[in-house]
């Protein structure tokens, strides 16, 4: 079962982003079909929180193996909590995202086992832009233009 679980995250040569996540979701469905009858609680644990388990597939592929483990993530969360205590509160979502981004940016300089290639840096910048300025749905955009006219 353990080998099948880790196989969920082996997405082969899929590009980081939505394609890699969709491959992982298909492999998770196969995992669930195979093991649900024997281990229903374990399978439910995986399938109920699959989005959180595959979020690392949005990041550069060369980082996947290193960042999918919780120690690496928990250290970053601890540093973010430490900085928020100093501020005491954040005025909005953008300020929170900016703080988290700054913590990750500073921490990434000291990470061992990660290589920041130009392609990886571009992908991270694109992800940051998507978080700060999510694309407007076509319908909402059309309604806004119509209302303005």
Number of helices: 9
Quick one: how many beta strands?
A: 0
Q: What's the main sheet like?
A: none
Estimate the strand proportion. under 5%
The helix fraction, in percent, is 55-70%
Mean pLDDT: 79
Spell out the helices and strands N to C.
HHHHHHHHH
The class by helix and strand makeup works out as mainly alpha
How would you describe the overall organization of this protein?
The protein has helices spanning 2-7, 18-35, 40-48, 50-53, 64-67, 70-87, 93-108, 118-132, 138-148. With 149 residues, the protein is an all-alpha fold. The chain is globular, with a radius of gyration of 19 Å.
In short:
The chain has 149 residues and is an all-alpha fold. The chain contains 9 helices and no strands.
Salient structural properties:
mainly alpha; 0% strand
Topology:
Elements (H helix, E strand, L loop, with lengths): L1 H6 L10 H18 L4 H9 L1 H4 L10 H4 L2 H18 L5 H16 L9 H15 L5 H11 L1
Helix pairs in contact: 2-3, 6-7
């Amino acid at each position: 079962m353990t080998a099948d679980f880790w196989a969920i995250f082996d997405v082969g040569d899929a590009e980081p982003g939505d394609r890699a996540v969709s491959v992982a979701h298909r492999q998770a469905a196969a995992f669930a079909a195979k093991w649900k009858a024997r281990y229903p609680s374990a399978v439910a644990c995986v399938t109920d929180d699959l989005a959180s388990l595959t979020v690392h597939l949005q990041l550069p592929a060369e980082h996947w193996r290193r960042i999918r483990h919780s120690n690496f993530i928990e250290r970053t969360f601890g540093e973010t909590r430490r900085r928020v205590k100093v501020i005491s509160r954040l005025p909005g979502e953008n300020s929170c995202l900016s703080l988290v981004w700054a913590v990750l940016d500073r921490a990434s300089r000291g990470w061992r086992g990660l290589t920041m290639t130009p392609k990886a840096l571009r992908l991270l910048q694109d992800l940051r832009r998507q978080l700060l300025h999510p694309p407007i749905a076509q319908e909402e955009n059309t309604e806004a233009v119509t209302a303005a006219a």
